[in-house]
Design goal:
Blueprint lengths: L2 H12 L1 H8 L7 E4 L8 E4 L4 E2 L5 H11 L8 E5 L5 H6 L7 E6 L2 H10 L3 H5 L3 E5 L5 H10 L12 E3 L8 H22 L3 H19 L4 H8 L4 E5 L5 H11 L4 E5 L3 H6 L6 E4 L8 H4 L10 E5 L4 H6 L4 E5 L4 H4 L15 H11 L4 E5 L30 E4 L6 E4 L1 H15 L6 E4 L11 E2 L2 H4 L19 H48 L8 H15 L5 H26 L6 H39 L8
Parallel strand pairs: 4-5, 4-7, 5-6, 8-9, 8-13, 9-10, 10-11, 11-12, 13-16, 16-17
Antiparallel strand pairs: 1-2, 2-3, 14-15
Length: 632
């Protein structure tokens, strides 16, 4: 197999669309190659204006570029626009510090030439180099880079998109567009981590408290099976545009499966519309009001799809219909092993969760209404009749705008709604089968990947020859539920035991580091830094590194990461700036070690505190949940 075939074979596994584009290339149309006796010294010339990739000697320029990049030697993630002749990247990959290089190339023929001459196959397969074709490089593709390797998010503060050389400066418009994709993706990934660990702790507490009820409810698999072989789903959200859609929704309700977010439930009741599935995924007590302020008869015949982290008062407010619990895709839910209850709700809003269910149910068509994700023209945030009012959310001083429905301008939104929008666009792009997604909101933000269509026209596509069949779910046998509740209790006890041992090690390391830093400060005050014992400092660095390796253990990650990641993540963003700093001599290396240790003093304190919160909340919840007391 020649070099090109090896590269192409690797790309077929990693990027089939690019592989297909390469297979259709006609050589020497726009570019030609000038070879030299040294195979690393070849140039590529644009035929239209005889512009070379390298104006002088390619190899000399490449070696100079390698020298120029010495300050980036410790960067594990590098991003470039322009492949050049590929030799620079082949040399860079020799640096074992580099985890991944992403290269975006606007010319398919240059890609074709380089992949014929340089063997990147193994690095492509190992994801050490990811080569993207610029015309295919959209937001979803860029965002996937940070999803496939979550460590890359930790280096968000040192991100830069390097232009390979002057040849690519004529592509400034495309560079600017792709840069925006990276900025959006980084922003999305950083915001989605959050900055408040309290929410995660509440989620753990409520998940454990709700486990007995979840394990006595129908499984998510059971619900999804009941959604199969259905034609059209309508997801009903609570944006300002919903009010105008209600008359048509009432007409079509008997023929389409209605997924309604909890905030829309009272509005649909007032309009005389009964949804099939009502979804709740948030932790907050306030969501219970959507059910307490709606007559109980409205709940009859409805499936309430709840996540296991909802507030107990929400759960108690639902007294009719069928409650079906599933889990959000967190480590602390996955570790219990109740996979039949499934994992939905990664998208952070009930509407995102509804779309996940629609996809799992393999609906042919999904119509979205009320999904404005923006303020109305009158400044309203929600539809008329919303429990918390149509002006529940006020526009912020710092304005955020997104492309409006129908295009041709922008609408005002919030950072949170923008996050929901990005999840929608990502989910639509990643849908594993062909589904017709119609945004019939007729207002608000544009959802890329969906077809914009008036609701009146969208419902003409629905088969009205027969009414939909009701959703009938089945609860598990009592003995199975009891066995699973016991299993959940034992898992909680295991977390407490395991976590307590790990926390003790973190606390011990913190105390040693605190003592060391205090001694360093005393030496500094006395002007005696020459007395520093760097062997002791290196041992301390190794000990902190061993603590950081806890995050590579699946148990530790499952038990604690979701709860502590918000503040640990934001500290790691700053620690990354220290890690990538280049040092040219021993004195600089020692200074970098000391700064790294000081940064980890509060990091260790935070880690121990977060672990302590998790352990205590599990212990307390076991005491509070009556059904767990049978196993004590």
């Amino acid at each position: 197999m020649d070099i090109y075939q090896k590269n192409l074979s690797a790309l077929k596994q990693k990027d089939p669309l690019l592989a297909l584009a390469l297979m259709q290339v006609k050589p020497n149309e726009k570019f030609e190659v000038f070879m030299d006796s040294d195979p690393a010294n070849f140039n590529i010339i644009r035929k239209l204006d005889s512009t070379p990739l390298f104006p002088y000697k390619p190899l000399e320029e490449t070696l100079q570029k390698i020298t120029d990049f010495i300050p980036y030697s410790y960067y594990p993630y590098l991003y470039f626009y322009g492949l050049g002749n590929g030799v620079f990247y082949k040399m860079l990959l020799g640096n074992k510090q580099i985890s991944r290089i992403v290269v975006i190339e606007p010319e398919i023929e240059i890609l074709f030439i380089v992949l014929n001459l340089l063997d990147f196959a193994q690095d492509i397969l190992n994801d050490r180099i990811i080569i993207l074709y610029a015309p295919y490089c959209n937001y979803v593709m860029v965002n996937s880079l940070f999803m496939m390797d979550k460590k890359s998010r930790l280096y968000a503060k040192v991100y830069d998109l390097f232009i390979f050389n002057f040849f690519y400066e004529s592509y400034q418009a495309n560079i600017a567009e792709i840069s925006q994709h990276f900025v959006r993706a980084i922003e999305h990934n950083v915001i989605s981590v959050g900055n408040d660990t309290k929410d995660a702790i509440i989620g753990i507490k409520q998940h454990i408290y709700n486990l007995p009820d979840m394990l006595k409810s129908p499984t998510l698999i059971n619900l999804i099976e009941n959604l199969k072989n259905r034609d059209t789903a309508i997801i009903v959200s609570t944006g300002p545009s919903l009010s105008k859609q209600l008359p048509l929704l009432k007409q079509i309700a008997p023929y389409a499966t209605l997924f309604c977010i909890d905030a829309s439930f009272p509005i649909l009741y007032q309009a005389g519309i009964k949804p099939d599935i009502v979804l709740s995924l948030e932790r907050v007590e306030a969501t219970a009001k959507f059910y307490t302020d709606t007559p109980k008869q409205a709940q009859e015949g409805v499936v309430f799809a709840l996540t296991s982290i909802v507030h107990p008062k929400l759960k108690e407010a639902i007294t009719k219909g069928v409650k079906q619990f599933s889990m959000r895709p967190f480590g602390y839910t996955n570790m219990f092993g109740f996979h039949e209850y499934g994992y939905v709700g990664i998208g952070m809003s009930a509407a995102n969760m509804a779309y996940e269910m629609v996809v799992h149910g393999r609906f042919k068509r999904c119509i979205i209404i009320g999904q404005d994700l923006a303020f109305g023209e009158d400044g309203s945030s929600h539809a008329k009749g919303a429990i918390y009012g149509s002006n529940e959310i006020k526009p912020k001083e710092q304005k955020v705008f997104v492309e409006k429905y129908g295009g041709g301008g922008e609408v005002e939104t919030t950072l949170v709604w923008k996050l929901f929008l990005q999840f929608f666009e990502t989910d639509i792009a990643n849908t594993p089968y062909k589904i017709e997604v119609i945004n019939a909101t007729e207002g608000g933000a544009r959802i890329h990947g969906s077809v914009e269509m008036p609701f009146a026209k969208a419902i003409e596509l629905i088969d009205k020859s027969k009414e939909k069949t009701p959703i009938v779910l089945k609860k598990p046998e009592e003995k199975i539920s009891i066995r699973n509740i016991n299993k959940a209790y034992e898992k909680c006890k295991k977390i407490i035991t395991y976590g307590s041992k790990k926390k003790a090690r973190v606390e011990k390391t913190f105390l040693k580091l605190a003592k060391l830093t205090e001694e360093l400060e005393v030496l500094n005050e006395k002007g005696q830094l020459q007395k520093l014992d760097f062997k002791r400092i290196e041992k301390m660095v190794d000990e902190v590194d061993r603590i950081k390796k806890f995050f590579e253990e699946k148990e530790f990650s499952d038990y604690f990461v979701d709860a502590i990641q918000s503040y640990i993540f934001h500290q790691e963003l700053d620690i990354a700036k220290i890690l990538v700093r280049y040092v040219s001599n021993e004195e600089e290396r020692k200074a970098k070690q000391l700064e790294w240790l000081y940064a980890h003093k509060y990091w260790l304190f935070s880690l121990a505190g977060g672990m302590d919160c998790v352990i205590n909340v599990i212990r307390d919840t076991l005491d509070e949940q009556i059904e767990f007391t049978h196993f004590k």
